[in-house]
Specification:
The structure holds two protein chains of two kinds. Chain A is mainly α. Chain A has eleven helices and three strands. Chain A has a three-stranded antiparallel β-sheet with strand order 1-2-3. The radius of gyration of chain A is 31 Å and the shape is elongated. The relative contact order of chain A is 0.09. Chain B is mainly alpha-helical. Chain B folds into two domains: 125 residues, PX Domain; 182 residues, Up-down Bundle (Substrate Binding Domain Of Dnak, Chain:A, Domain 2), CATH 1.20.1270. Helix content of chain B is 59%, strand content 7%. In chain B, strands 1-2-3 form a three-stranded antiparallel β-sheet. In chain B, helix 6 runs antiparallel to helix 7. Chain B starts with 64 loop residues before the first helix and ends in a 5-residue tail after the last helix. The chains are: A mainly alpha, B mainly alpha.
């Protein structure tokens, strides 16, 4: 039960503001800045809180933080950021990054990200993270000084490893497979959900036309007039209610999206494992071949065809002294190699152990979160239906009085 | 007076002199059961008869509109009594397909139960096809031109490839035909129409149809109001109001019809997406361990919602839309009646002018026409009141329907077994 930052500190992303400034290329641009507020909380004494500290950050700084964390803690499933651009939109929502609803949902997403990092037993202790929350000026430089970019594995290297690795841990292979499927199914779900939302919107809005017609019709009726008019009003209410309903549903979609992006984080950990495993396999292979070479030189037998062997046959064998020197070099290299292999093995095992621990933690978190998300979705649906019942009951009453 | 071929008693307005006194022809068994006057049932008799008589047979001086109105008032009072002492019940059911060499068609069973004296038997059961209903309606329009005849379901189905023999189509039609006959049954005047009784009772309707045609041609009378050439100068305000109302009314109903259709269309499109949505949760459930149960649950619920929505759309199509259309047809009929009324008034005014010019004392012709106008007035109002009442109830039914469906939707949602 490690004590994590989240317990000691309140963190919120409370505001979003449009700013204009000059970017790296000295071009004027508009961006949104987010206000991060933190306040130290004394766990024992209630009501005694520290002063509120705050600073402004923009999305690109969040991205920098996350990149740093991913590289520095490759065995951790690092929480994802909310999407950069609005995706899976249905027609009414705009895909504009400056749209206030989008900005608002992003604000919530960023806050969620910070809370997730702060509640992670390992990540919360990172100094750069702490500085991100507390130190406005000079933070970027601080991050760059860590030189994390150099530690980052190249995409190409990772891809290569994925294809060539021979003996990865089966659990990771399964996990990678799972995260692929998860990504595919959630994106499918989000796409269909967007279409469903679109259609439902249409159904509700057309009912609004009833409101107008009933109103016009009531004008020519005597006894039926009042009933029609009030029923029409209820139809208008019904048509308007869909806006709020779908707004709420966006929150559910966001929760799903978080796990869609988490799938990517899972894959990153798997890739790291594959890379390390591949590295290990390569190092082992290298060692084996060096040992073989050594043996060949020592015993003079050529087991495998080698250019050196051929040339020595053609141009004369080496002198015993040369051979001795070579053997010595190889033996040193073998020594080094064995040490390296040992440490790599250790590294690999450590990685697997800690990564798997975090993955288990992640699994529990995921199950818990998604269960809650599904429950709240169901609750939303029920409330939507109850509203529907209410409206139609009211309409029915109006009709009965006609 | 009984020597001439019996004109149909409810034919158009004719000169008083030409009309035989109905009670004088008490050997009226020849005229058919509907014509036998009986003291109890005098008042509901069609007052298309030119001669209004008191139960004891004394002809009443009907030269002044006032007296006819008072009789009309009495008639309206008795309307209420009539409702409580229903003596005629008609049902349409049991559709059957008939395949013949020339054609294939559907017949419906028409069952009648009655205690009315005009009917020989207390119960009848005959089979009729749509053509027969159409014939009945035309006959009613001809013989009771001043009354509003309930509409029939449409003869031809215009939209798309609708199967004339599909269960839904046949059932919708049956319901509409049933309503048609019930409305006639409820009508104080129409229900005593001769053609109606024949329709309900005759074993071979076609024979009667032919006979009817023959009679007409023998008499050589034009039953309809072909008072051509009379143009109405101005419609009296109250009828103009009704006319305007009907115009707006049909317009609004038409709009509602379109909206309802649009809603159904949107709902169906929503349904399509929903049908894809549910299974994705299932797929996801297959991936997961702990979450598989709740995910499956969501998937199942969405499936249930689909079913409920489907039912809702079906009900709307089958029950709501046909009634809307029926009322639009009704409004059309009413407008036609109004036009006829106009014609009558035009004729009256023209004849009045002619009289004034000629300075002749011929009060009876215009009176005749005027009486017709009175008739139209009263029945128009009566029927309109009827329509309002009907509409009330219809609306209640619709909303109950939609409500019920919304309820079902909710029930299914509540079954979401996410714990």
């Amino acid at each position: 039960m490690e004590d994590c930052l989240a317990k000691k500190m309140e963190i919120t992303v409370s505001e979003a503001e449009k700013r204009t400034g000059r970017n790296a290329m000295n071009i004027q641009e508009t961006y949104t800045a987010y206000l991060i507020e933190t306040r130290a909380v004394e766990s024992q004494s209630e009501g005694q809180c520290g002063p509120v500290e705050s600073l402004w950050r923009r999305y690109s700084e969040f991205e920098l933080l996350r990149n740093y964390l991913s590289v520095t803690y490759p065995h951790i499933v690092v929480p994802p950021l909310p999407e950069k651009r609005a995706d899976f939109v249905w027609h009414k929502l705009s895909a504009d990054n400056m749209d206030p609803d989008f900005v608002e949902r992003r604000r919530i997403g960023l806050e969620n990200f910070l809370l997730r990092v702060a509640s992670h037993p390992i990540l919360c202790q990172d100094k750069i993270f702490y500085a991100f929350l507390m130190q406005e000026g000079g933070w970027k430089e601080m991050v760059n000084e860590t030189g994390f970019q150099l530690k980052a594995d190249s995409r190409l290297k990772a891809l290569n490893a994925t294809f060539r690795v021979k003996n990865p841990d089966k659990r990771f292979t399964e996990l990678k497979h799972y995260s692929d499927e998860l990504q595919s199914v959630i994106s499918h779900l989000l796409r269909v959900r967007a279409r469903v939302a679109d259609r439902l919107y249409g159904v509700y809005k057309v009912h609004g036309n009833y409101g107008r017609v009933f109103s016009e019709w009531s004008a020519i009726e005597k006894e039926m007039g009042d009933g029609l008019q009030s029923a029409g009003h209820h139809m208008d209410v019904y048509a308007a209610s869909i806006d709020d309903i779908l707004e709420e549903e966006e929150h559910y979609a966001d929760q799903l999206k978080e796990y869609l992006f988490y799938a990517e984080a899972l894959r990153a950990v798997c890739r790291k494992h594959e890379l390390m495993q591949y590295d290990l396999e390569m190092a082992a292979q290298d060692l084996t071949s060096k040992k073989q070479q050594c043996e060949e030189l020592a015993t003079g037998t050529v087991r495998t065809f080698s250019l050196k062997g051929m040339t020595s046959k053609l141009f004369g064998q080496e002198t015993p002294e040369q051979r001795e020197a070579k053997i010595k070099v190889l033996e040193e290299q073998i020594q080094e190699g064995e040490e390296q292999l040992k440490s790599k093995n250790l590294e690999g095992r450590d990685f697997v152990k800690s990564a798997w621990a975090d993955i288990e933690r992640f699994k529990e978190q995921k199950n818990h979160d998604l269960k809650e998300a599904l429950i709240s979705y169901a609750v939303m649906q029920i409330s939507m239906c109850k509203k529907g019942i209410q409206v139609w009951t009211n309409a029915k009453e109006c009709f009965s009085k006609m | 007076a009984a020597s001439a071929p019996k004109p149909l008693p409810s034919s158009g307005p004719k000169s008083l002199r030409e009309m035989p006194h109905p009670l004088a022809t008490s050997s009226s068994e020849e005229m058919g059961p509907a014509l036998t006057p009986s003291p109890d049932l005098l008042l509901p008799r069609s007052i298309a008869d030119k001669d209004l008589s008191l139960p004891n047979g004394t002809p009443v001086d009907t030269s002044s509109p006032a007296s006819s109105s008072s009789l009309l008032n009495r008639l309206q009072l008795d309307d209420d009594l009539d409702v409580e002492t229903r003596d005629l019940f008609v049902t349409v059911d049991d559709p059957k397909k008939h395949v013949c060499t020339m054609e294939t068609y559907i017949t419906y069973r028409v069952t009648t139960k009655t205690t009315r004296a005009e009917f020989d038997l207390p119960e009848y059961s005959v089979r009729r096809r749509y053509q027969d209903f159409d014939w009945l309606r035309n006959k009613l329009e001809e013989s009771q031109p001043t009354h509003l005849i309930p509409p029939l379901p449409e003869k031809f189905v215009v939209k798309g490839v609708v199967d004339r023999f599909s269960e839904e189509f046949v059932e919708t039609r049956r319901k509409a035909l049933d309503k048609f006959l019930k409305r006639i049954t409820d009508h104080p005047v129409l229900s005593f129409n001769e053609h109606f009784s024949i329709f309900l009772t005759a074993k071979d309707l076609n024979a009667y149809k032919k006979q009817g045609m023959a009679l007409l041609s023998k008499m050589g009378e034009s039953v309809k109001y072909v008072t051509g050439g009379y143009k109405l100068r101005s419609r009296p305000l109250e009828f103009a109001t009704i006319g305007d109302y009907l115009d707006t009314f049909s317009l609004k109903l038409g709009t509602i019809d379109r909206i309802a259709q649009r809603i159904i269309k949107e709902q169906l499109e929503y349904l399509v997406e929903l049908r894809e949505y549910g299974p994705v949760y299932s797929t996801w459930g297959g991936l997961e361990v702990e979450l598989s149960e709740p995910l499956e649950g969501v998937s199942a619920c969405i499936g249930n919602c689909c079913t409920a929505l489907e039912e809702l759309s079906e009900d709307m199509t089958e029950d709501f839309l046909p009634v809307l259309r029926e009322y639009i047809l009704y409004a059309e009929s009413m407008k036609n009646v109004l036009k006829k009324r106009d014609q009558v008034q035009a004729e009256y005014e023209a004849k009045l002018e002619a009289v004034a010019l000629k300075r002749e004392d011929r009060p009876k012709v215009p009176t005749d026409v005027e009486k017709c106008q009175d008739r139209v007035e009263c029945f128009n109002a009566d029927l309109k009141a009827d329509m309002e009442r009907w509409q009330n109830n219809k609306r209640q039914d619709f909303r109950q329907l939609l409500m019920g469906m919304a309820d079902k939707n909710i029930q299914y949602y509540e079954k979401v077994c996410v714990t």
